[in-house]
Amino acid sequence: MNVDRLKNDRFLRALRREPVDRTPIWLMRQAGRYLPEYRETRRRAGSFLAMAQNPDIACEITLQPLARFDLDAAILFSDILTIPDAMGLGLYFVEGEGPKFRDPVRDAAAIAKLGVPDMERELRYVMDAVRTIRAELDGKVPLIGFSGSPWTLACYMVEGGGSKDFARIKAIALNDPQALHALLSVNTDAVIAYLSAQRAAGAQALQVFDTWGGVLSPAMYREFSLPYLTRIAAELERGAGVERTPLILFGKGNSAHLEALADCGTDAVGVDWLVELGEAARRTGGKVALQGNLDPAALYGSPEAIRREARRALDSYRDGNAGSREGHVFNLGHGMSPDMDPEHVAVLVDEVHRYSAR
Amino acid sequence: MNVDRLKNDRFLRALRREPVDRTPIWLMRQAGRYLPEYRETRRRAGSFLAMAQNPDIACEITLQPLARFDLDAAILFSDILTIPDAMGLGLYFVEGEGPKFRDPVRDAAAIAKLGVPDMERELRYVMDAVRTIRAELDGKVPLIGFSGSPWTLACYMVEGGGSKDFARIKAIALNDPQALHALLSVNTDAVIAYLSAQRAAGAQALQVFDTWGGVLSPAMYREFSLPYLTRIAAELERGAGVERTPLILFGKGNSAHLEALADCGTDAVGVDWLVELGEAARRTGGKVALQGNLDPAALYGSPEAIRREARRALDSYRDGNAGSREGHVFNLGHGMSPDMDPEHVAVLVDEVHRYSAR
What we know:
Structural class of chain A: alpha/beta
Oligomer: homodimer
């Protein structure tokens, strides 16, 4: 049983659109470089990958923000690119440049060689981290497992790292769409196996990050991202009732596709700050819970400004959700940045809980 | 008279939503590094700024793509940051890093010192370029003048260059909105004076680039970008009838705001590739012409793929515009990149003209 001993189940209740005493909040990249204790752990571990691949260190980092702030969920500390690394692409990091792959896949032949990794062998370090964190959390809050989306993983796998214009993968989409579908298909199989294994190891909610879905034209999104998110939502076994492990599909720039996402079988949709939360609630019509969507830059504001912006997002959701706060998980519209002030996070968490409790 | 001797007025007719024999096309950054002749001129001139500030070289570069391709408009070769440079911020370029300012403005005191530059003194080199290009074009196609939007200029002026998260300007927006409004107000006065001067010098259409409008939440866009675009559309004197100098408001990420933009008094709205052109046409309801919106990455596709994507955009517009191609200026959804193949531009221009002429 994954939820039997939870002391705080606000987050899971909100994802089921049930009443809550206050709106739950967690923050994407809540365990990160803005925390001095994270930087200290990293100095000790030596590198980002060394941290992510060591279950004890991954656990330590996952729990750091929970020791400081009254957050309603923990999220596994790991990398978004563990799957392609386990497929053999050779993940590495260049300081200040983000992730890279030694062996990107750029043609049908390279794609045909890819297979779904064994989750308890090549990706055992992730599952061990989930198990360790669950034990350490001891029911304090639920633990979120996660994966990159098939399209977002494919972007990194083809481009070999980050990209400004995604020229290589878009060229394949235009010139050899079948090859790209083959890549997306194996990625989808892998994501489903990966999230299933995280669930089996103890993850109590699962989030898919479609970080690069928003670089696609609507026609390309409908061809190369949405169908694979839909397949994950359909095929990922996740239980029922209070034992259900909810799925959240977060997408940067997904606001053009909210109706389709609400119909794709997911439990919740995460949105960025480029759409009014109230509009998102109206357009999804109560079919899913919504997670979001404060502009992360709000954390650069004064405490007063942060409180005002938090209230605005809470009210916007409620106004678009027939006057009810149910079904809302508060979050940022994107991840936190290293130069943010931890004190400001405390202010945000306080205001979300305080204001939504009224 | 600005349009009396035009041999090709397709572009201006489309902006007036009049019938045309084929859909006009030009491409953002059509004069640029993807052309070997541009790279040669740049080698000779020494730097980007040296090119932009020399009217003869600016003219030469403006005309380069027209010698190769059957484009329906020329656009002034200049920089988006001429106005803040003329305000005294000290524009410079670092190779591979984009534009920077020596003296960014970061508080109300610095903002209070800003004034509208004299267009025929500090920005005379721009007006001279417009005059030179008009003479050289000799009525071949219309010449587009342009400016950055008040918000986009403010982003560079506050951040001191490009930015990933616009932390500084968003902090001002949150903590001292009146200071930001003061900056946006003087920028708006300057943009209106700048575009008026370009029109007086011979520009036959005017485009405002709201490149960074899309980083704003809807509430912030409505407060910090839209009102200033609206003021430009309202106050910029631009004539009437066939002598009217049309205004195009291009905005990256403006799809959430198309209805408001269609009502703001502009002649045309430029959109990126993240919205279906047909949907944009339906939502703007014939109130404005639309410019766009092929994903620039389409130019990385094969000639067949480029033709297919061009037809798709043309058909999407027509389907959303009550079956008519009127009021559409074909363009990319964003600027061209240095690694694009000039041969592919020829294919695109050919297909847009060929297919829309049927």
